[in-house]
Amino acid sequence: MTISIPRGTQDILPGEVELWQLIEQKARELCEKYQYQEIRTPIFEHTELFSRGVGDTTDIVQKEMYTFEDRGGRSLTLRPEGTASTVRAFVEKKLFGSANQPVKLYYMGPMFRYERPQSGRFRQFVQFGIEALGSNDPAIDAEVISLAMNLYKEMGLKKLKLVINSLGDKESRIAHREALVQHFKPRIHEFCSDCQNRLEKNPLRILDCKQDREHELMSTAPSILDYLNDDSKAYFEKVQKYLTQLDIPFEVDANLVRGLDYYNHTAFEIMSDAEGFGAITTLAGGGRYNGLVEEIGGPETPGIGFALSIERFIAALKAEGVNIEMNQGIDCYLVTLGEEAKDYSVGLLQQLRLAGISAERDYLNRKIKAQFKAADRLKAKFVAILGDEELKNNKINLKNMETGDQVELDLDSFVSTFLEMQQ
Ligand code: HAM
């Protein structure tokens, strides 16, 4: 019996992986320009980190975590997201004491959520995310959003929609929370059991419920924007001002609450507007999380960040029909004729590669015609032809596959001549 891949996971094969690598490379380059540095944290963490960090009334913690007991009896969880781990490392490694403030970090790697797999939703997916810790300046909120938008744009996406909201500061949220409880309480029995539990613990989560989405009380629920105090309002206005200054169009949506508990002030999502993208249109999400560092045991430190998944990024590129020419072809394919030439090519191939030339040869004992076919499949720019006769005479033929031109070169200086011809 064959063993199949687990549900909700993917193999990324040659031919597809190049696009992944390109996105990853672009993300790294952009982080360099924006001065975010990479952090690598473990794939699993103590379960408590996520129940405290992400919030134990969230769907992620209640239903979606891959939690297991290790042989030492500890409860561990495969990370469902990267913010809690980044903040844990920030606290544990005392990055708050670093001379460079704010601390600007990025990460890229697999995350795990036990969700119902569907197009754009996986159980293992790769997130690229950034976190800026230590600044309360609304300009950094705009910077975080602009990095995400610019990454998408650099890859050629155009049909993007940025939606922002403010969840306010603590005072604003307490007032809003009270209003939500008053709103839902009289009819809470009409909601699912999760929502009933959430009413007292965290009524904001009700707005995020997938099951009761269509309930009439959802659309009439009190809006957070009506409960923002002056400070929160001023903060949100500044963020909007900076986004406008950066030429980033946005929509304000008071219903955007995000599915994780740590947010306050700015919350945002970037959606794809491309036709036929599918039901799940959110490409990236993020926001401010002042208070999370203290929750994880560190000193009072503000923070903001976002994460996107490469899976949805690629889906958006496909939906928009962005054409990215990936396979540029190899520099040189060695075609050999005869036993001695074949032996010699082992060393010649190595010389080419060490000189920085991408090169390949035949390993299947193919006839010359089939070797040329193999060179075509690899989109070789040049084919070097070496027979036993040429070898004896210290010669090699080089064919330019684009023009069809062929020249005879000295074999002992072939690699340096080839390099010169490339300049
Ligand atoms: P999130 O909204 O849960 O936020 O996830 C961020 C992004 O990860 C989503 O917009 C989506 O692109 C991708 N994603 C989430 N779940 C899946 C899935 N099952 N399959 C494919 N892609 C998925 C966070 O994770 C926060 N940590 C973001 C953040 C960083 N907030 C502040 N800093």
TrEMBL record:
Keyword set, alphabetical order: Aminoacyl-tRNA synthetase, ATP-binding, Cytoplasm, Ligase, Nucleotide-binding, Protein biosynthesis
Cited InterPro entries: aa-tRNA-synth_II, aa-tRNA-synth_II/BPL/LPL, Anticodon-bd, Anticodon-bd_dom_sf, His-tRNA-ligase, HisRS-like_core, HisRS/HisZ, HisRS_anticodon
Principal location: cytoplasm
Keyword Amino-acid biosynthesis: no
A GO cellular component entry from the record: cytoplasm
Signal peptide: none
Residues in coiled coil: none
Record-annotated Aminoacyl-transfer RNA synthetases class-II family profile domain positions: 1-317
Source taxon at top rank: Bacteria
Matching Pfam families: HGTP_anticodon, tRNA-synt_His
Membrane spanning stretches: none
Protein name: Histidine--tRNA ligase
